[in-house]
Amino acid sequence: MTTSATKAGDGGRGFGARPVFVFSTPPTPNGDLHLGHLSGPYLGADVFVRFQRMNGVTAWHLTGSDDFQSYVVECARREGRAPALVAAHYGAEIAETLRLMDVEPDQYTVTSTDPGYAKGLQAFFTRLVESGSVAPREAPALFDGATSEYLYEPGVSGRCPTCDEPTGGNICEECGEPNACADLVEPAATGCEVPPRPGSVTRFSLPLHEFRGTVEAHHRLGRVPARLRELAERLFSRERLDVAITHPSNWGVSPIESDVDGQVIWVWPEMAYGFLHGIESLGRRIGRDWEAALPRPDWKIVHFFGYDNSFYHSILYPVLYRLAFPDLAVDIDYHVNEFYLLDGSKFSTSRGHAIWGKEILGPHSVDAVRFFLSRTRPEGRRTNFERGAYEAMLRDVLIGTWQRWLDDLGARVARHCGGTAADAPVRAPEHAAFLDRLGVRLAALTGSLGPDGFSLNRAAEQLHGIVEDAIGFARLEGVVAGSAAWRDETRTALMIELAAARLLARCAAPVMPRFASRLAAALGDPPPVEWPRAVDPVAAGTRIDLAGRVFFGAPAGGGLDASADGGFGASAAGGVPERGSPLLPWLRAVVISTLQLPEGTFVDDRTLVELGMGSLQAVAVQFQILQQLDVDVSLQDLLGGDVAALAAILDRLAAPEITSELATEVRV
Ligand SMILES: [Zn+2]
After folding, report:
1. Which of 211, 252, 393, 403 could be disulfide-bonded to 68 (CB atoms 3.0-4.6 Å)?
2. How far is the centre of ligand 1, averaged over its atoms, from the C-alpha of 167 (Å)?
3. How far is the CA of 205 from the centre of ligand 1 (A)?
4. What's the gap in Å between 220 CA and the centre of ligand 1?
5. Which tens digits make up the pLDDT trace of 596-610?
6. Chain segment 302-340, per-residue pLDDT in tens
7. Helix, strand or coil for residue 96?
8. Is-contact 83 76, C-beta < 8 A?
9. CA distance 166 to 283
10. For residues 12 and 52, is the Cβ–Cβ distance under 8 A?
11. Helix-then-strand count for the chain, H and E
12. DSSP state letter for 603
């Protein structure tokens, strides 16, 4: 057996020592995340990064809150509050849902509040203008028939000029092609009976049809699924494809160029910069001098997104990068998912047809949800979520098959080997054959989690395959378990089953991190951090603690997590002397729970950064403060002083009745 900790090995093929930046599409803060979102880019990017790290690759997960979407403005109008408040509210809800899903981004950029973001974006835009290709051009547009307001994105709908399916403005979710709004068939303004009025507007725009060669060359560089290459082929068969890069709006970042008053840089081209800004921000925090304005040839970028974002990610952005950085071939891999359906129709935030992450996620359900979504997520085809199917999987597969096998294995090790791993004295031919089959499972898992063949559908099947193989093996070997003559063979077979359990713990780590750690612990191992190169035995003499272990909780109350960790009173009440603000015990509990510190950790005299808080967790704490205290605390206040000082600030800002209510709650 070889153990090479520094070599990337098969799983990280091709990345070597390059920094790998894995992006899940920054979500739009106009609602919380539902299972459709979570199953796609967020779970994908999270598992991808966990697996790469286990293979020694320096990979990071970056995402954030895409505040300047026009959908935020539309939501703000509906909810009767300012776009900035809507973005802050849902951006924080989203951060909290990702945390519940055990998705741990290393960088969470909030575009409307990030210092330096707007300036960097304007500079990126200026590069586009200086390339000569992005320039003010007059083109047809639609205006509200009653108010004359400029219409685009959620403000207008109609039928797609390409596929004739119903679509909103600018992008068709069915065929993936962009539209110009003015070319919609039978357009209608949202929430308005009067037909839209055709007119024209001068915006910065890009003649994308001139860049077929650029896109083709880019598509030969990285991993680009055929589905994306086919979309590009379709688009470039058009005679012209002019794409507006600015739109009339007051929500977003205006260019410094004064040619188009009252317009902002469209949020989709903006995102091309946002990715580079995220890399710079991450670098600043971890001590690397990466600059958004100077992308480097060794950067490897990996994108996870839904098919409806394909045009922007895989066709528009490569052209923008080429215009902004003509000497650089930006190297990007793409991972695209299709729509996840709920009971046969698309998840929909506005129609309330969704299962929200927070409805189903908790410490006892998160691994089951991650496994189920891995197994059923829409890779290459649309798939369907049914709550009944999730509950049946939890009951029959994870509890009825996995947990039952592990429990039974623990009982047999206790009976035949006194509860500890033993040497494997004799190896029968069938034993060797079973070990070989486990080796095949390992190779298949390495392939399905690796960058080229990445598929969580296949990875989930292979994990289940390890358990099914082991159960079949145990059944065949079990017939001589009571025989004194075949005692050594029985013990050998048990040790090989333990090796299968150990393989399961290590291979499940990227998909089900909590289960993997707990299974590893039951086999005497620390949480798995290295991807296995071989099927390794459990060392002789190791205490095996599998019998009676509960890894998966039964679905309770409709399969939802009945014991979601909403209350954090218990950890704060425990014997820590109180000083200062009445909110201190409450804040301690929030910090300890968010950072998952051991209960009773003394945090008062330390800053959140010293306690290891990342940007996502900072937003989560900010959110809890907003939600529970109704106080909008700045990042500077949040991160500037120690926990006791922060509590004192909150005490000043919060309404006294809220303070006394929370203070009482925590002490009870
Ligand atoms: Zn279409």
Report:
1. 252
2. 7
3. 22
4. 26
5. 887 777 788 788 888
6. 999 999 999 999 999 999 999 999 999 999 999 999 999
7. helix
8. yes
9. 43
10. yes
11. 24, 17
12. -
70-101 pLDDT tens trace: 999 999 999 999 999 999 999 999 999 999 99
List C-alpha distances in Å: 293 to 65, 66, 117, 120, 619.
Answer: 21, 20, 12, 8, 26
Helix (H), strand (E), coil (C) string for 164-223: CCEEECCECCCCCCECCCCCCEEEEECCCCCCCEEEEEEEEEEEHHHHHHHHHHHHCCCC
Residue 556: band (very low, low, confident or very high) from pLDDT cuts 50, 70, 90 = low
Distance CA 646, CA 651 (A): 8
- Give the model confidence (pLDDT) of 114-171 as tens digits: 999 999 999 999 999 999 999 999 999 999 999 999 999 999 999 999 999 999 999 9
Secondary structure percentages of the chain, helix, strand, coil, to 5: 45, 15, 40
CA 160 – ligand 1 centroid, Å: 5
Instruction: For residue 312, report the distance from its CA to the centre of ligand 1, in Å.
Output: 15
Strand partners, 265: 246
pLDDT of residue 666: 57
Residue pair 29/86 in contact by the 8 Å Cβ criterion? yes
Compute the distance from residue 163 Cα to the ligand 1 centre, in Å: 4
> Identity (one letter) of the amino acid at 4?
S
- Three-state secondary-structure class, residue 136: strand
Q: Name residues whose C-beta falls within 8 Å of residue 450's C-beta, 6 or more positions apart in sequence.
A: 10, 11, 12, 13, 51
Residue 388 CB neighbour total at 10 angstroms? 9
Q: pTM score > 0.70 for this model?
A: yes
CA of 153 to the centre of ligand 1 (A): 14
CA 110 to the chain's CA centroid: 15
Q: What spacing in Å lies between the alpha carbon of 164 and ligand 1's midpoint?
A: 6
Contact 157, 187 (CB under 8 A): yes
What's the sign of the alpha-carbon dihedral 124, 130, 131, 136?
positive
Q: Determine contact, residues 234/194, Cβ cutoff 8 Å.
A: no
Residue 180 CA to ligand 1 center (angstroms) comes to 12
Q: Which two tokens stand for residue 509?
A: 């780590």
Can you give the length of the chain in residues? Answer: 668
Backbone angles phi, psi at 334, to 5 degrees: -120, 135
Express each pLDDT in 236-271 by its tens digit. Answer: 999 999 999 999 999 999 999 988 999 999 999 999
Above 80 in pLDDT, residue 2?
Answer: no
The alpha carbon of 242 and the centre of ligand 1 are apart by a number of angstroms equal to: 17
Q: Separation of 168 CA from ligand 1 center, angstroms?
A: 10
Separation between Cα atoms, residue 328 and residue 214, nearest integer Å: 12
